[in-house]
Amino acid sequence: MVQAEKSARGEAVPIDLNIGRALRLVRDFVGKSQGQICRALGWERSYYSNLERGVIKNPSFEAVAKIINFLGISMDGFLEVAQHPEKGVNSYAERILTFVGCRRPNGSDHNGSLPQK
Fold first, then answer.
1. What are the strands, taking DSSP E only, across 3-117?
2. Which of 2, 51, 68, 93 could anchor a disulfide with 79, C-beta 3.0 to 4.6 Å?
3. CA distance 78 to 88
4. pTM of the model
5. CB burial string 86-112: b at 16+ within 10 A, e below
6. Is CATH 1.10.260.40 what the domain over 16-100 is classified as, yes or no?
7. What is the model's pLDDT at position 114?
8. Shortest CA distance to 4 belongs to which of 78, 70, 79, 75?
9. Residue 70's closest CA among 99, 43, 98?
């Protein structure tokens, strides 16, 4: 779970989340296109594209929850990727898949292999 960081004086420090980058990383990891997500959720592709590109800086919790639910990723796992997108999904994949028993939207188990680029 994403934890608030503390300053030297014990004050909470805001956590920088890169929601758009994390959406892209998770979508690529699961192997879905923007079009597939938009058709499933009834959204315009331009809206989703703006989320991934960071044009929409603070998407609603409901929007993010719908996307990650469709992709079969837990909120905790998604927030870890959003907090450290430079590490990508690969650094969290084994833990995420083991912890939540990630299933693809079609109901099949994810085989744990990562997409090759």
1. 5-6, 12-13
2. 2
3. 11
4. 0.66
5. eebbeebbeebbeeeebeeeeeeebee
6. yes
7. 41
8. 79
9. 43
Cα within 13 Å of Cα(97), Cβ side: 17
DSSP code, position 54 = T
Coil, helix or strand at residue 33: coil
pLDDT tens figures, 40-61: 999 999 999 999 998 988 899 9
| Domain coordinates in residue numbering, the chain | 16-100
Question: What distances in angstroms separate CA 61 from CA 69, 84, 110, 116, one per listed residue?
Answer: 12, 19, 25, 31
> pLDDT digits over 13-28, tens only?
555 678 898 899 889 8
> Cβ(74)–Cβ(39) under 8 Å?
no
